[in-house]
Design goal:
- The chain is of the alpha+beta class and about 150 residues long.
- It has one domain: 60s Ribosomal Protein L30, Chain: A.
- Helices cover about 30% and strands about 30% of the residues.
- The protein has a four-stranded mixed sheet. A two-stranded antiparallel sheet has the order 2-3.
- A hairpin with a 2-residue loop joins strand 2 and strand 3.
- The longest helix is centred in the first third of the chain and has 15 residues, at about 30-45.
- It is globular.
- InterPro entries: Endonuclease_RusA-like, RusA-like_sf.
- This is RusA family crossover junction endodeoxyribonuclease.
- It holds the Pfam family RusA.
Length: about 150
Amino acid sequence: MIEFTVYGTPVAQGRPRASTRGGFVKMYDPKKSKDFKQYVKLVASEYKPDQLLSGPLQLDVKVFKPTLKSFSKKKKLEAEQGLLRPISKPDVDNYVKGIKDALNKVIWNDDSQIVDLHVSKFYSETPRIEVAVQMLEVQQEQMSLLSN
């Protein structure tokens, strides 16, 4: 299992932007998303396996958004304990898109290898993203399919 933490305020994947140059349309990532992916890639490279992971993978991502300044002491305590969870935008899938893109060719070959995904949003005084990647045994997966 590969586990690491990306400290700082989490950035969700922004909508792709388009520009035209010479009559051609060029699609690109917004600067904030692009910079965050580079940061994630840099942190993940410290945990890079000797050989890129292959086969089916499980990805667990915990997004810790900054606690809101408007929170009372009671709300801050509930947020730190995981009792008060963010239900505001951005969506969890927008956070995980950027993480998955950043880990391509660093931890795994392609994010299509992820067959099991779990993403959670929390509040914290220490904003961060915790990432855990685990290889799944093909035999285990096939056995569970047969037993169902």
